[in-house]
Protein backbone atom coordinates (compact mmCIF):
# COMPACT_ATOMS: atom_id res chain seq x y z
CA UNK A 1 0.00 0.00 0.00
CA UNK A 2 0.85 1.60 4.43
CA UNK A 3 1.30 2.06 4.45
CA UNK A 4 0.41 1.30 6.30
CA UNK A 5 2.19 2.65 4.26
CA UNK A 6 4.27 2.70 4.83
CA UNK A 7 4.08 2.34 4.82
CA UNK A 8 1.34 -0.20 3.87
CA UNK A 9 3.73 -3.43 4.02
CA UNK A 10 2.47 -6.70 2.55
CA UNK A 11 3.60 -10.11 3.75
CA UNK A 12 3.14 -13.06 1.44
CA UNK A 13 5.92 -14.87 -0.31
CA UNK A 14 7.99 -15.66 2.71
CA UNK A 15 6.61 -13.73 5.63
CA UNK A 16 4.38 -14.65 8.50
CA UNK A 17 5.43 -11.98 10.90
CA UNK A 18 3.65 -12.48 14.22
CA UNK A 19 5.08 -10.14 16.77
CA UNK A 20 3.82 -11.47 20.07
CA UNK A 21 5.45 -9.00 22.36
CA UNK A 22 3.91 -8.19 25.72
CA UNK A 23 3.42 -4.49 26.50
CA UNK A 24 6.80 -4.20 28.16
CA UNK A 25 9.50 -1.69 28.83
CA UNK A 26 10.78 -2.00 25.28
CA UNK A 27 7.52 -0.53 23.99
CA UNK A 28 7.76 2.19 26.63
CA UNK A 29 11.32 2.90 25.55
CA UNK A 30 10.28 3.41 21.92
CA UNK A 31 7.25 5.44 22.93
CA UNK A 32 9.45 7.59 25.17
CA UNK A 33 11.68 8.32 22.21
CA UNK A 34 8.62 9.39 20.22
CA UNK A 35 7.11 11.53 22.96
CA UNK A 36 10.31 13.32 23.85
CA UNK A 37 11.39 11.58 27.06
CA UNK A 38 14.46 9.72 25.82
CA UNK A 39 16.59 10.27 28.92
CA UNK A 40 14.00 8.60 31.12
CA UNK A 41 13.68 5.83 28.56
CA UNK A 42 17.35 4.99 28.93
CA UNK A 43 17.41 5.46 32.67
CA UNK A 44 15.94 2.96 35.08
CA UNK A 45 13.11 1.59 32.91
CA UNK A 46 14.79 -1.55 31.77
CA UNK A 47 13.53 -5.05 31.84
CA UNK A 48 11.87 -6.84 28.95
CA UNK A 49 10.40 -10.23 29.74
CA UNK A 50 9.96 -11.77 26.30
CA UNK A 51 9.86 -11.05 22.62
CA UNK A 52 8.14 -14.03 20.99
CA UNK A 53 8.31 -14.31 17.25
CA UNK A 54 6.47 -16.78 15.07
CA UNK A 55 8.94 -18.54 12.76
CA UNK A 56 8.70 -17.74 9.05
CA UNK A 57 9.58 -19.76 6.02
CA UNK A 58 12.46 -18.75 3.82
CA UNK A 59 11.51 -20.03 0.37
CA UNK A 60 8.36 -20.72 -1.60
CA UNK A 61 9.50 -24.29 -2.19
CA UNK A 62 9.26 -25.18 1.51
CA UNK A 63 5.48 -25.19 1.60
CA UNK A 64 5.01 -28.08 4.00
CA UNK A 65 7.53 -26.69 6.46
CA UNK A 66 5.91 -23.26 6.17
CA UNK A 67 2.52 -24.61 7.13
CA UNK A 68 4.01 -26.56 10.01
CA UNK A 69 5.70 -23.46 11.37
CA UNK A 70 2.51 -21.44 11.18
CA UNK A 71 0.67 -23.57 13.73
CA UNK A 72 0.36 -21.87 17.13
CA UNK A 73 1.88 -24.82 18.98
CA UNK A 74 5.04 -24.51 16.93
CA UNK A 75 5.97 -21.01 18.04
CA UNK A 76 9.39 -20.41 19.46
CA UNK A 77 9.71 -20.71 23.19
CA UNK A 78 9.94 -17.42 24.98
CA UNK A 79 13.09 -18.59 26.67
CA UNK A 80 14.81 -18.75 23.29
CA UNK A 81 14.27 -15.04 22.74
CA UNK A 82 14.64 -13.46 26.14
CA UNK A 83 16.41 -10.16 26.33
CA UNK A 84 17.06 -8.13 29.43
CA UNK A 85 17.32 -4.51 28.42
CA UNK A 86 19.25 -3.90 31.60
CA UNK A 87 22.07 -5.89 30.02
CA UNK A 88 22.05 -3.66 26.96
CA UNK A 89 20.85 -0.27 28.07
CA UNK A 90 22.00 -0.22 31.66
CA UNK A 91 19.99 0.65 34.73
CA UNK A 92 21.88 3.71 35.98
CA UNK A 93 20.99 7.02 34.39
CA UNK A 94 23.65 8.23 32.05
CA UNK A 95 25.03 4.72 31.55
CA UNK A 96 24.11 4.47 27.87
CA UNK A 97 27.68 4.56 26.54
CA UNK A 98 28.97 1.68 28.64
CA UNK A 99 25.79 -0.25 27.87
CA UNK A 100 26.26 0.17 24.13
CA UNK A 101 29.82 -1.11 24.53
CA UNK A 102 28.46 -4.21 26.26
CA UNK A 103 25.96 -4.71 23.45
CA UNK A 104 28.69 -4.37 20.84
CA UNK A 105 30.72 -7.04 22.63
CA UNK A 106 27.87 -9.54 22.59
CA UNK A 107 26.21 -8.71 19.27
CA UNK A 108 27.55 -11.77 17.47
CA UNK A 109 26.38 -14.34 20.04
CA UNK A 110 23.21 -15.24 18.08
CA UNK A 111 20.86 -13.76 15.45
CA UNK A 112 18.48 -12.68 18.20
CA UNK A 113 21.16 -10.82 20.17
CA UNK A 114 22.49 -9.28 16.96
CA UNK A 115 19.14 -7.78 15.98
CA UNK A 116 18.16 -6.86 19.53
CA UNK A 117 21.44 -4.94 19.83
CA UNK A 118 20.71 -3.31 16.47
CA UNK A 119 17.25 -2.30 17.69
CA UNK A 120 18.64 -0.70 20.83
CA UNK A 121 21.31 1.11 18.83
CA UNK A 122 18.68 2.55 16.49
CA UNK A 123 16.58 3.62 19.47
CA UNK A 124 19.61 5.34 21.03
CA UNK A 125 20.35 7.19 17.77
CA UNK A 126 16.74 8.37 17.53
CA UNK A 127 16.77 9.42 21.18
CA UNK A 128 19.96 11.44 20.72
CA UNK A 129 18.44 13.12 17.69
CA UNK A 130 15.27 13.92 19.63
CA UNK A 131 17.33 15.45 22.45
CA UNK A 132 19.16 17.58 19.92
CA UNK A 133 15.87 18.68 18.36
CA UNK A 134 14.41 19.71 21.68
CA UNK A 135 17.59 21.49 22.74
CA UNK A 136 17.71 23.50 19.52
CA UNK A 137 13.99 24.28 19.77
CA UNK A 138 14.27 25.44 23.40
CA UNK A 139 16.99 27.91 22.41
CA UNK A 140 14.58 29.48 19.94
CA UNK A 141 11.72 30.62 22.15
CA UNK A 142 10.31 33.21 19.84
CA UNK A 143 10.62 31.02 16.81
CA UNK A 144 8.00 29.49 14.57
CA UNK A 145 7.42 26.61 16.96
CA UNK A 146 6.07 29.03 19.59
CA UNK A 147 4.09 30.92 16.95
CA UNK A 148 2.20 27.93 15.59
CA UNK A 149 -1.35 29.10 14.83
CA UNK A 150 -4.12 27.63 16.93
CA UNK A 151 -5.94 26.45 13.81
CA UNK A 152 -2.86 24.42 12.78
CA UNK A 153 -2.66 22.75 16.19
CA UNK A 154 -6.33 21.84 16.06
CA UNK A 155 -6.00 20.50 12.52
CA UNK A 156 -3.03 18.34 13.53
CA UNK A 157 -4.95 16.84 16.44
CA UNK A 158 -7.99 16.10 14.28
CA UNK A 159 -5.95 14.53 11.50
CA UNK A 160 -3.39 12.56 13.50
CA UNK A 161 -5.91 10.98 15.88
CA UNK A 162 -7.88 9.56 12.94
CA UNK A 163 -4.85 8.73 10.78
CA UNK A 164 -3.05 6.67 13.44
CA UNK A 165 -6.18 4.67 14.28
CA UNK A 166 -6.78 3.81 10.63
CA UNK A 167 -3.13 2.97 10.05
CA UNK A 168 -3.16 0.70 13.10
CA UNK A 169 -6.12 -1.17 11.61
CA UNK A 170 -4.15 -1.63 8.41
CA UNK A 171 -0.96 -2.78 10.16
CA UNK A 172 -2.88 -5.32 12.25
CA UNK A 173 -3.81 -7.34 9.17
CA UNK A 174 -0.31 -7.68 7.71
CA UNK A 175 1.37 -10.21 10.03
CA UNK A 176 -1.34 -12.87 9.65
CA UNK A 177 -2.22 -12.38 5.99
CA UNK A 178 -0.77 -15.70 4.87
CA UNK A 179 -1.92 -17.71 7.86
CA UNK A 180 -5.54 -16.61 7.68
CA UNK A 181 -5.88 -17.79 4.06
CA UNK A 182 -3.58 -20.82 4.31
CA UNK A 183 -5.74 -22.15 7.15
CA UNK A 184 -8.81 -22.43 4.86
CA UNK A 185 -9.98 -25.82 3.58
CA UNK A 186 -12.04 -26.17 0.38
CA UNK A 187 -13.73 -29.51 -0.38
CA UNK A 188 -11.41 -31.20 2.07
CA UNK A 189 -8.27 -29.75 0.44
CA UNK A 190 -6.18 -27.12 2.28
CA UNK A 191 -5.61 -23.84 0.47
CA UNK A 192 -2.53 -24.05 -1.75
CA UNK A 193 0.22 -21.49 -2.06
CA UNK A 194 -0.97 -20.76 -5.61
CA UNK A 195 -4.44 -19.93 -4.29
CA UNK A 196 -3.09 -17.65 -1.56
CA UNK A 197 -0.95 -15.95 -4.22
CA UNK A 198 -4.03 -15.31 -6.35
CA UNK A 199 -5.81 -13.80 -3.37
CA UNK A 200 -2.78 -11.60 -2.74
CA UNK A 201 -2.63 -10.40 -6.34
CA UNK A 202 -6.40 -9.77 -6.38
CA UNK A 203 -5.88 -7.01 -3.82
CA UNK A 204 -3.20 -5.34 -5.94
CA UNK A 205 -5.29 -5.68 -9.11
CA UNK A 206 -8.31 -4.19 -7.35
CA UNK A 207 -6.27 -1.17 -6.22
CA UNK A 208 -4.96 -0.57 -9.76
CA UNK A 209 -8.33 -1.15 -11.44
CA UNK A 210 -10.61 0.85 -9.15
CA UNK A 211 -8.10 3.45 -7.88
CA UNK A 212 -8.78 6.20 -10.45
CA UNK A 213 -12.57 5.85 -10.05
CA UNK A 214 -12.17 5.93 -6.28
CA UNK A 215 -10.10 9.11 -6.58
CA UNK A 216 -12.72 10.73 -8.79
CA UNK A 217 -15.44 9.92 -6.27
CA UNK A 218 -13.35 11.41 -3.44
CA UNK A 219 -12.79 14.69 -5.28
CA UNK A 220 -16.44 14.89 -6.29
CA UNK A 221 -18.33 13.78 -3.18
CA UNK A 222 -15.88 14.58 -0.38
CA UNK A 223 -12.75 13.31 1.39
CA UNK A 224 -14.48 12.87 4.74
CA UNK A 225 -17.05 10.60 3.10
CA UNK A 226 -14.16 8.71 1.51
CA UNK A 227 -12.50 8.18 4.89
CA UNK A 228 -15.76 6.89 6.38
CA UNK A 229 -16.21 4.65 3.34
CA UNK A 230 -12.72 3.25 3.94
CA UNK A 231 -13.64 2.29 7.51
CA UNK A 232 -16.73 0.42 6.32
CA UNK A 233 -15.22 -1.23 3.22
CA UNK A 234 -12.02 -2.31 4.97
CA UNK A 235 -14.03 -3.72 7.87
CA UNK A 236 -16.09 -5.75 5.40
CA UNK A 237 -12.86 -7.06 3.89
CA UNK A 238 -11.61 -8.00 7.37
CA UNK A 239 -14.82 -9.83 8.28
CA UNK A 240 -14.66 -11.77 5.00
CA UNK A 241 -11.66 -13.71 6.38
CA UNK A 242 -14.03 -15.62 8.66
CA UNK A 243 -15.91 -17.09 5.72
CA UNK A 244 -15.21 -20.64 4.47
CA UNK A 245 -16.44 -19.69 0.97
CA UNK A 246 -13.80 -18.95 -1.67
CA UNK A 247 -16.03 -16.46 -3.47
CA UNK A 248 -16.42 -14.43 -0.29
CA UNK A 249 -12.64 -14.44 0.27
CA UNK A 250 -12.02 -13.09 -3.23
CA UNK A 251 -14.73 -10.46 -2.73
CA UNK A 252 -13.04 -9.48 0.53
CA UNK A 253 -9.71 -9.02 -1.26
CA UNK A 254 -11.39 -6.81 -3.88
CA UNK A 255 -12.90 -4.71 -1.10
CA UNK A 256 -9.53 -4.51 0.65
CA UNK A 257 -7.92 -3.28 -2.59
CA UNK A 258 -10.54 -0.53 -2.90
CA UNK A 259 -10.00 0.29 0.77
CA UNK A 260 -6.27 0.64 0.14
CA UNK A 261 -6.96 3.27 -2.54
CA UNK A 262 -9.14 5.16 -0.07
CA UNK A 263 -6.64 4.95 2.80
CA UNK A 264 -3.76 6.35 0.76
CA UNK A 265 -5.67 9.24 -0.76
CA UNK A 266 -8.71 10.29 1.30
CA UNK A 267 -7.08 11.34 4.63
CA UNK A 268 -4.16 13.11 2.92
CA UNK A 269 -6.45 14.94 0.49
CA UNK A 270 -8.68 15.99 3.39
CA UNK A 271 -5.70 17.33 5.35
CA UNK A 272 -4.27 19.31 2.42
CA UNK A 273 -7.70 20.70 1.53
CA UNK A 274 -8.30 21.89 5.11
CA UNK A 275 -4.81 23.39 5.41
CA UNK A 276 -5.18 25.33 2.17
CA UNK A 277 -8.67 26.53 3.06
CA UNK A 278 -7.57 27.89 6.46
CA UNK A 279 -4.96 30.20 4.92
CA UNK A 280 -2.75 29.91 8.02
CA UNK A 281 -0.08 27.89 6.22
CA UNK A 282 0.67 29.75 2.97
CA UNK A 283 4.10 28.18 2.39
CA UNK A 284 3.11 24.67 3.51
CA UNK A 285 5.68 24.50 6.33
CA UNK A 286 3.15 23.38 8.96
CA UNK A 287 1.77 20.85 6.51
CA UNK A 288 5.25 19.37 6.19
CA UNK A 289 5.51 19.17 9.97
CA UNK A 290 2.15 17.39 10.13
CA UNK A 291 3.28 14.79 7.59
CA UNK A 292 6.48 14.29 9.57
CA UNK A 293 4.54 13.68 12.79
CA UNK A 294 2.10 11.38 11.00
CA UNK A 295 4.72 9.01 9.64
CA UNK A 296 7.01 9.14 12.66
CA UNK A 297 4.03 8.05 14.76
CA UNK A 298 3.15 5.45 12.13
CA UNK A 299 6.41 3.61 12.88
CA UNK A 300 5.44 3.31 16.55
CA UNK A 301 1.90 2.32 15.57
CA UNK A 302 3.30 -0.48 13.37
CA UNK A 303 5.33 -1.97 16.25
CA UNK A 304 2.41 -1.79 18.65
CA UNK A 305 0.05 -3.24 16.03
CA UNK A 306 2.34 -6.25 15.77
CA UNK A 307 2.02 -6.75 19.51
CA UNK A 308 -1.76 -6.41 19.36
CA UNK A 309 -1.93 -8.83 16.41
CA UNK A 310 -0.02 -11.50 18.32
CA UNK A 311 -2.25 -10.99 21.35
CA UNK A 312 -5.43 -11.31 19.25
CA UNK A 313 -4.15 -14.34 17.31
CA UNK A 314 -3.25 -16.16 20.51
CA UNK A 315 -6.86 -15.83 21.71
CA UNK A 316 -8.96 -15.86 18.54
CA UNK A 317 -6.82 -17.66 16.00
CA UNK A 318 -5.55 -16.26 12.71
CA UNK A 319 -8.73 -14.20 12.17
CA UNK A 320 -8.25 -12.47 15.55
CA UNK A 321 -6.10 -9.59 14.24
CA UNK A 322 -8.62 -8.95 11.45
CA UNK A 323 -11.45 -8.85 13.97
CA UNK A 324 -9.46 -6.49 16.19
CA UNK A 325 -8.74 -4.21 13.24
CA UNK A 326 -12.47 -3.58 12.82
CA UNK A 327 -12.49 -2.00 16.28
CA UNK A 328 -9.78 0.46 15.25
CA UNK A 329 -11.61 1.12 12.00
CA UNK A 330 -14.80 1.89 13.92
CA UNK A 331 -12.93 4.21 16.31
CA UNK A 332 -11.19 6.03 13.44
CA UNK A 333 -14.40 6.38 11.48
CA UNK A 334 -16.26 7.67 14.54
CA UNK A 335 -13.60 10.30 15.24
CA UNK A 336 -13.62 11.39 11.59
CA UNK A 337 -17.41 11.70 11.67
CA UNK A 338 -17.28 13.83 14.83
CA UNK A 339 -14.16 15.94 14.27
CA UNK A 340 -13.83 16.42 10.52
CA UNK A 341 -15.90 18.68 8.34
CA UNK A 342 -16.44 17.78 4.72
CA UNK A 343 -14.26 19.18 1.97
CA UNK A 344 -14.37 18.47 -1.73
CA UNK A 345 -12.04 19.31 -4.59
CA UNK A 346 -12.04 22.94 -5.68
CA UNK A 347 -13.64 23.20 -9.11
CA UNK A 348 -12.43 25.49 -11.86
CA UNK A 349 -15.13 27.22 -13.85
CA UNK A 350 -15.28 26.29 -17.53
CA UNK A 351 -14.61 29.11 -19.97
CA UNK A 352 -17.81 28.47 -21.94
CA UNK A 353 -20.39 29.89 -19.57
CA UNK A 354 -18.64 29.54 -16.23
CA UNK A 355 -20.27 26.24 -15.37
CA UNK A 356 -18.55 23.96 -12.87
CA UNK A 357 -17.95 20.43 -14.10
CA UNK A 358 -17.40 17.35 -12.01
CA UNK A 359 -13.91 15.93 -11.89
CA UNK A 360 -13.23 13.34 -14.57
CA UNK A 361 -10.36 10.92 -15.04
CA UNK A 362 -9.76 12.27 -18.56
CA UNK A 363 -9.40 15.80 -17.20
CA UNK A 364 -6.96 14.56 -14.57
CA UNK A 365 -4.81 12.93 -17.26
CA UNK A 366 -4.87 16.19 -19.21
CA UNK A 367 -3.75 18.15 -16.14
CA UNK A 368 -0.83 15.76 -15.64
CA UNK A 369 0.22 16.05 -19.31
CA UNK A 370 0.13 19.84 -19.20
CA UNK A 371 2.35 20.16 -16.11
CA UNK A 372 5.62 18.18 -16.21
CA UNK A 373 6.21 18.87 -12.51
CA UNK A 374 3.16 16.77 -11.64
CA UNK A 375 4.44 14.01 -13.91
CA UNK A 376 7.82 14.05 -12.17
CA UNK A 377 6.32 13.96 -8.67
CA UNK A 378 4.04 11.13 -9.77
CA UNK A 379 7.02 9.31 -11.25
CA UNK A 380 8.82 9.51 -7.91
CA UNK A 381 5.70 8.16 -6.17
CA UNK A 382 5.23 5.21 -8.52
CA UNK A 383 8.89 4.21 -8.74
CA UNK A 384 9.84 4.57 -5.08
CA UNK A 385 6.77 2.78 -3.75
CA UNK A 386 7.14 -0.02 -6.30
CA UNK A 387 10.75 -0.45 -5.13
CA UNK A 388 9.55 -0.49 -1.54
CA UNK A 389 6.94 -3.20 -2.11
CA UNK A 390 9.43 -5.34 -4.03
CA UNK A 391 11.79 -4.96 -1.08
CA UNK A 392 9.02 -6.04 1.31
CA UNK A 393 8.65 -9.30 -0.60
CA UNK A 394 12.39 -9.98 -0.77
CA UNK A 395 13.97 -8.95 2.52
CA UNK A 396 13.00 -12.13 4.46
CA UNK A 397 14.86 -14.59 2.20
CA UNK A 398 17.79 -12.17 1.89
CA UNK A 399 18.14 -11.75 5.66
CA UNK A 400 17.60 -15.48 6.21
CA UNK A 401 20.44 -16.43 3.87
CA UNK A 402 22.78 -13.89 5.45
CA UNK A 403 21.90 -15.17 8.93
CA UNK A 404 22.53 -18.77 7.84
CA UNK A 405 25.94 -17.80 6.48
CA UNK A 406 26.90 -15.81 9.59
CA UNK A 407 25.58 -18.19 12.27
CA UNK A 408 25.23 -21.54 10.51
CA UNK A 409 22.43 -23.27 8.62
CA UNK A 410 20.47 -24.12 11.76
CA UNK A 411 20.26 -20.50 12.95
CA UNK A 412 16.73 -19.07 13.04
CA UNK A 413 15.93 -15.57 11.85
CA UNK A 414 14.01 -13.42 14.38
CA UNK A 415 11.71 -11.82 11.78
CA UNK A 416 9.72 -9.89 14.36
CA UNK A 417 12.82 -8.19 15.76
CA UNK A 418 14.06 -7.44 12.23
CA UNK A 419 10.70 -5.83 11.47
CA UNK A 420 10.98 -3.73 14.64
CA UNK A 421 14.46 -2.62 13.54
CA UNK A 422 13.00 -1.53 10.20
CA UNK A 423 10.32 0.48 11.96
CA UNK A 424 12.91 2.08 14.25
CA UNK A 425 14.90 3.03 11.13
CA UNK A 426 11.72 4.58 9.65
CA UNK A 427 11.23 6.54 12.86
CA UNK A 428 14.79 7.85 12.60
CA UNK A 429 14.16 8.92 8.99
CA UNK A 430 10.87 10.66 9.86
CA UNK A 431 12.61 12.45 12.74
CA UNK A 432 15.33 13.62 10.35
CA UNK A 433 12.65 14.92 7.97
CA UNK A 434 11.11 16.93 10.80
CA UNK A 435 14.45 18.52 11.65
CA UNK A 436 15.19 19.45 8.04
CA UNK A 437 11.70 20.92 7.66
CA UNK A 438 12.25 23.06 10.78
CA UNK A 439 15.53 24.27 9.29
CA UNK A 440 13.57 25.40 6.19
CA UNK A 441 15.59 23.17 3.86
CA UNK A 442 13.59 22.91 0.60
CA UNK A 443 11.76 19.59 0.43
CA UNK A 444 12.79 19.12 -3.20
CA UNK A 445 16.50 19.29 -2.36
CA UNK A 446 16.63 16.87 0.56
CA UNK A 447 14.23 14.51 -1.22
CA UNK A 448 16.74 14.29 -4.08
CA UNK A 449 19.51 13.53 -1.58
CA UNK A 450 17.31 10.94 0.17
CA UNK A 451 16.51 9.18 -3.12
CA UNK A 452 20.20 9.10 -3.99
CA UNK A 453 20.93 7.52 -0.60
CA UNK A 454 18.12 4.99 -1.11
CA UNK A 455 19.51 4.02 -4.52
CA UNK A 456 23.01 3.56 -3.10
CA UNK A 457 21.64 1.51 -0.18
CA UNK A 458 19.63 -0.83 -2.43
CA UNK A 459 22.51 -1.16 -4.90
CA UNK A 460 24.78 -2.09 -1.98
CA UNK A 461 22.26 -4.74 -0.95
CA UNK A 462 22.24 -6.16 -4.49
CA UNK A 463 26.05 -6.31 -4.49
CA UNK A 464 26.07 -7.98 -1.07
CA UNK A 465 23.47 -10.57 -2.09
CA UNK A 466 25.38 -11.43 -5.26
CA UNK A 467 28.81 -11.62 -3.62
CA UNK A 468 29.71 -11.82 0.07
CA UNK A 469 26.24 -12.19 1.62
CA UNK A 470 27.69 -10.42 4.66
CA UNK A 471 25.05 -9.98 7.37
CA UNK A 472 26.37 -6.63 8.74
CA UNK A 473 26.68 -5.17 5.23
CA UNK A 474 23.21 -6.35 4.20
CA UNK A 475 21.60 -5.14 7.42
CA UNK A 476 23.30 -1.75 7.14
CA UNK A 477 22.00 -1.38 3.56
CA UNK A 478 18.45 -2.40 4.53
CA UNK A 479 18.40 -0.13 7.60
CA UNK A 480 19.62 2.80 5.48
CA UNK A 481 16.88 2.11 2.93
CA UNK A 482 14.22 1.95 5.67
CA UNK A 483 15.45 5.29 7.07
CA UNK A 484 14.90 6.68 3.56
CA UNK A 485 11.39 5.18 3.62
CA UNK A 486 10.78 7.10 6.85
CA UNK A 487 11.80 10.31 5.08
CA UNK A 488 9.96 9.50 1.87
CA UNK A 489 6.34 9.49 3.02
CA UNK A 490 6.27 12.94 4.66
CA UNK A 491 8.37 14.25 1.75
CA UNK A 492 6.05 12.96 -0.98
CA UNK A 493 3.01 14.19 0.94
CA UNK A 494 4.54 17.67 1.09
CA UNK A 495 5.47 17.61 -2.60
CA UNK A 496 1.98 16.49 -3.64
CA UNK A 497 0.47 19.29 -1.59
CA UNK A 498 2.62 21.79 -3.54
CA UNK A 499 2.35 20.49 -7.09
CA UNK A 500 -0.83 18.43 -7.43
CA UNK A 501 -3.89 20.69 -7.84
CA UNK A 502 -6.67 20.22 -5.32
CA UNK A 503 -9.24 19.99 -8.11
CA UNK A 504 -7.87 16.58 -9.18
CA UNK A 505 -5.74 15.55 -6.20
CA UNK A 506 -7.27 12.18 -5.34
CA UNK A 507 -7.66 11.10 -8.97
CA UNK A 508 -4.04 11.92 -9.81
CA UNK A 509 -2.73 10.16 -6.70
CA UNK A 510 -4.57 7.00 -7.70
CA UNK A 511 -3.57 7.27 -11.38
CA UNK A 512 0.08 6.98 -10.39
CA UNK A 513 -0.84 3.91 -8.38
CA UNK A 514 -1.49 2.00 -11.63
CA UNK A 515 2.15 1.71 -12.83
CA UNK A 516 3.18 1.03 -9.23
CA UNK A 517 0.89 -2.00 -8.96
CA UNK A 518 1.70 -3.24 -12.47
CA UNK A 519 5.43 -3.25 -11.67
CA UNK A 520 4.99 -5.03 -8.33
CA UNK A 521 2.68 -7.69 -9.79
CA UNK A 522 5.03 -8.18 -12.73
CA UNK A 523 7.98 -8.82 -10.41
CA UNK A 524 5.90 -11.12 -8.24
CA UNK A 525 4.81 -13.23 -11.22
CA UNK A 526 8.37 -13.40 -12.56
CA UNK A 527 10.13 -14.09 -9.28
CA UNK A 528 11.13 -17.63 -10.24
CA UNK A 529 13.08 -16.24 -13.21
CA UNK A 530 14.39 -13.10 -11.53
CA UNK A 531 15.49 -14.62 -8.25
CA UNK A 532 16.47 -12.58 -5.20
CA UNK A 533 19.24 -10.67 -6.95
CA UNK A 534 17.06 -9.83 -9.97
CA UNK A 535 14.12 -8.58 -7.88
CA UNK A 536 16.32 -6.37 -5.71
CA UNK A 537 18.08 -5.21 -8.88
CA UNK A 538 14.75 -4.02 -10.31
CA UNK A 539 14.07 -2.27 -7.01
CA UNK A 540 17.44 -0.53 -7.26
CA UNK A 541 16.75 0.47 -10.88
CA UNK A 542 13.35 1.93 -9.95
CA UNK A 543 14.98 3.98 -7.19
CA UNK A 544 17.58 5.25 -9.66
CA UNK A 545 14.84 6.42 -12.04
CA UNK A 546 12.99 8.09 -9.14
CA UNK A 547 16.21 9.92 -8.27
CA UNK A 548 16.52 11.18 -11.87
CA UNK A 549 12.91 12.42 -11.75
CA UNK A 550 13.65 14.35 -8.57
CA UNK A 551 16.82 15.93 -9.93
CA UNK A 552 14.92 16.93 -13.06
CA UNK A 553 12.26 18.59 -10.89
CA UNK A 554 14.96 20.52 -9.02
CA UNK A 555 16.44 21.67 -12.33
CA UNK A 556 13.06 22.93 -13.53
CA UNK A 557 12.46 24.79 -10.27
CA UNK A 558 15.95 26.33 -10.44
CA UNK A 559 15.40 27.58 -13.99
CA UNK A 560 12.04 29.07 -13.03
CA UNK A 561 13.61 30.85 -10.05
CA UNK A 562 16.37 32.31 -12.25
CA UNK A 563 13.81 33.53 -14.77
Folded structure, characterized:
This protein is 72% helix and 2% strand. The chain has 563 residues and is mainly α. The strands form two sheets. The protein has a two-stranded antiparallel ribbon with strand order 1-2. Strands 3-4 form a two-stranded antiparallel ribbon. A hairpin with a 2-residue loop joins β3 and β4 (189-190). The longest helix is centred in the C-terminal third of the chain and has 36 residues, at 372-407. The radius of gyration is 23 Å and the shape is globular. The two termini are 39 Å apart.
Helix/strand/pairing category: mainly alpha
Task: State mean pLDDT (0 to 100 scale).
Answer: 79
Number of distinct beta strands: 4
- Characterize the largest beta sheet: strand count, sense, and whether it forms a barrel: 2 strands, antiparallel
Query: What does the radius of gyration come to?
Result: 23 Å
Shape: globular
What is the share of helical residues? over 70%
Helix count from the secondary structure assignment: 22
- Order of strands in the sheet with the most strands? 1-2
Distance between the termini: 39 Å
Low-confidence blocks of residues: 1-94, 141-145, 349-356
Give the oligomer, counting copies of the same chain as homo and different chains as hetero.
Answer: single chain
The arrangement of helices and strands along the chain is: EHHEHHHHHHEEHHHHHHHHHHHHHH
Instruction: Work out the strand percent.
Output: under 5%
